[in-house]
Design brief:
By secondary structure, this protein is mainly β. Strands 1, 10, 11, 12 and 15 form a five-stranded antiparallel sheet that branches. Strands 2-9-8-7 form a four-stranded antiparallel sheet, with no helix packed on it. The protein is globular and about 65 Å long.
Length: about 300
């Protein structure tokens, strides 16, 4: 069978929760490079997010659910401090009733609490947009810390990631899938060089202590595929994308460790898997994980070997 053979010594599954799966909705960005962040929620299910901008100005943003049901849920954000939602300034007398956070552990956490109706609210901050293949930032957005808000109850999404060998054992890679309650999470279509999908779901892949240098570096970003919610990736050099200031590194970027981050589907938190890199090629381990690959991506033409 002509397919990309994948394997792993360590299989990783990160199971976390969400309450919606929709191509249109996700955790929402509130601000960039925010500091002194606080989160409050009242008995009516309205949240007040207060933060300082990079220049020092203090902002008060109100958030409340919009849309019918989990599938259509989004958050309405009022950046006027209450005038848009209520026709008055509302942040000054805001009554916070949100208690101690009782949800699952979260990555990139800034603040979280559990409201009186049992729903969880969280703020997370991380660098979502970065240059690929360890290239140094060359645009302002590459160093921006996004502050993102989520609201949910129940489980998170599930991000499965499997380290693997590719290229006959010469290279390393990762494959996996993003699901919620057993359902794949993806956009409306799989993008290509000639067509885009603004509702695409991406996973962001980082590498630690690699040939790119010490510490964490962004290696790549892969869209989850229509139908399966899966993705596949190999650490190998690629030509510089359009708009890059210079040539890309000419060495594979696999490192001592790897991590994969995904924006939470619906209004759920952003989630992450992390695991070690692989050692020497192990044909027995390769054979074992091939069965997992076939189950997840065996029929996925986007992951078929062209070699």
């Amino acid at each position: 069978m002509n397919r990309r053979r994948r394997s792993s010594v360590a299989l990783g599954i990160l199971a976390v929760a969400a309450s919606v799966v929709s191509a249109a909705s996700a955790s929402q960005r509130v601000a960039v490079d925010a500091s002194s962040v606080t989160l409050r929620v009242d008995d009516d299910g309205v949240a007040l997010i207060t933060y300082a901008e990079a220049g020092g100005a203090v902002r008060h943003v109100l958030a409340r659910p919009a849309g019918d049901g989990d599938e259509g849920a989004t958050l309405e954000l009022d950046r006027s401090g209450g005038w848009q939602m209520f026709g008055r300034q509302a942040w000054g007398r805001f009554r916070d009733t949100c208690g101690t956070y009782r949800g699952p552990p979260l990555v990139h956490l800034v603040a979280a609490c559990t409201a009186t109706d049992g729903t969880h609210w969280a703020l997370q901050s991380w660098q979502r947009v970065q240059p690929l293949r360890g290239v140094a930032p060359f645009r302002p957005e590459h160093e921006a810390l996004e502050l993102r808000v989520s609201r949910w109850s129940g489980p998170l999404a599930a991000l499965e990631v499997y380290p693997n060998w590719t290229g006959g054992g010469r290279l390393q890679g990762l494959f996996g899938r993003l699901t919620y309650r057993g359902r794949p999470v993806y956009g409306e279509r799989t993008p290509s060089p000639t067509r885009s999908d603004p509702k695409s779901r991406y996973v962001y892949i980082d590498t630690y202590n690699s040939a790119y240098g010490p510490g964490w570096k962004r290696e790549g970003a892969k869209v989850t595929h229509v139908g399966s919610g899966g993705f596949c990736f190999s650490f190998f050099p690629i030509p510089a994308p359009r708009g890059y200031p210079g040539p890309m590194p000419t060495v594979p970027g696999n490192g001592q460790r790897h991590r994969v981050t995904a924006v939470g589907p619906g209004l759920t938190p952003d989630i992450r898997w992390e695991g070690p890199g692989l050692g020497a090629y192990d044909p027995d381990a390769d054979a074992r994980v091939n069965a997992v690959f076939d189950e997840i991506l065996g029929a996925d033409r986007s992951c078929t070997d062209e070699r």
